């Protein structure tokens, strides 16, 4: 057998890949933790490990591979197949597509819950609510309980959902979560408890699960020894990527499935843990080695293949100040003279101009736009830059922040599909019915009530009295729902059916109907890639496509465009040049009221993640003043900012510090001359009449 693929790995990578594999067999081995520093080939190593297991006889159908995003799992599956094909040649054909258990925790959770629904008294046809739907349902319940009418302000729907989600994901009592993370809501503990109880009952009545349920139900199943053994026994090998960004519930699931750790591999980098706001805990990775009867093997990947030495040195200096971490000394042999730059600019507009100038310069020198990225802490930080790029005709794609699927018209069509899939889903029904003119919340509620308890909700919809003044539109709507429910048009043509019905409403509701219609055509195209309505809805709800671009539409894939991304969405990626916006206190770290060590450390890791995306060139930009977000219209409030506290004066020698624009002697002379001008304006104006 050709083992050549192992030669491409370094010693530590090879040890991780071959752990527990011996003499052509790959039995479930002792648990393995791979601590992989930034750019140390984590993805590569994990893909090789899966391939190596398969090549040595592991059954690909009995391998579970969980990644942070669907994109990452698709990429991983492709790599595994490629390596297997190299090694096995013709014999690899039989393996194509056999690696069936790859996906995110939430996606795999949905599959497992559907498959075992009957054993846990659930209806397998449940629909899944995304965060916004969940907040809407929380709001409905909040109104029904009368909490929105309380004298002092009850927490908003978003805060309620965030509290609920943290209690579930962090496996912590409500009182503790309130005390630690939401002290200003602590007075509402009893009401919140009632609210959450009613919210859960509403989800059950409507047969919907929210994101958190996908983990919660799975974790609860793992509490039953028979189910845990049955489900855990589905796989010989369970591999988890980005383990630093999992939460308590995910660790409970994993340990429930494999209590002795046999066959378990987790890979992660504690220095890159950036999802604590979603209750991820770096403790999972720190505690993993001692979680089993036999301690896990720990291997560390310390060689960085991505960044030049000066960039790595600066990033290492930033992370060295974190309070708790596995010790790693990342090194590289990619020598370079170019230090990362700290660039001082006057304000947001100069920041944008500097970047455009540099991006164009780099392109002149052969770095395509696609190999350059601008990263920022919060999606709204890129506003000025987007304006400048549009003005200068530089195409870009933005990741993070508002998504294609968040736009109202796309949500309308998806709600229609969801309502057809599960007619008890009140949030979807509520949205869809109110698209009709003259149907308001009261009539929508009446219709939904009639459907709620009927054995066949669509039959009930067809019989219910039409809302007053809904006119002919109502009959058209009912017909369409009936057709969708019977699947008469077939998948994915039914999206066309909906579009046809929706078009007149779209034109009535939105001025820019034409642009929106093209989005819907795009949605139809995306839908064509999914085998069924149910799979389409599940996958899209769990992991929506991330890119949005300016109004010109997403550039074609073979075109060249600049990448704009939040740091969170830049995880796992790399570019030749990276620019980081607003490297100032107040942005990184973001304005944190409490400034607790844990939160500050997470912000430090964010900067570290941003810096370690760069291969050859890194610019951290420090505007001296920046606009305050959340002002009305074109508000001009700004604050004076200081360089981020994560780069202290002792580290400055690792950077090239420069100011921009560069002031030439002539400019300076002109500015000085301007300062000398003294006019007695009052006298001059008086003299006009003298
Ligand atoms: N053994 C190797 N020899 C040469 N190059 C390698 C090797 N392993 C990885 N690389 C290269 O190193 C770079 C980083 O790899 P990869 O993206 O897998 O890192 P990572 O550990 O997932 O990074 P991060 O955690 O920072 O996102 C890639 O360009 C990859 O091709």
Summarize the model shown.
The chain is an alpha/beta fold and 690 residues long.
What do the pLDDT scores average to?
86
What is the CATH level 1 assignment of the largest domain? Alpha Beta
The main β sheet shows up as: 8 strands, mixed
Percent of residues in helices comes to 40-55%
* Second-tier CATH architecture of the largest domain: 3-Layer(aba) Sandwich
Report the radius of gyration as a whole number of Å: 28 Å
Give the number of domains.
4
In CATH, the homologous superfamily of the largest domain goes by the name: P-loop containing nucleotide triphosphate hydrolases
User: What ligand molecules are bound, each kind once?
Assistant: adenosine-5'-triphosphate
Strand order of the largest sheet: 12-11-13-10-14-15-9-18
Separation, N- and C-terminal Cα atoms: 104 Å
Low-confidence segments, given as residue ranges, are 547-557, 630-635
Regarding quaternary structure, what we see is single chain
Number of helices: 27
Family: Belongs to the helicase family. UvrD subfamily.
Protein name: DNA 3'-5' helicase
Enzyme class: isomerase
EC number: 5.6.2.4
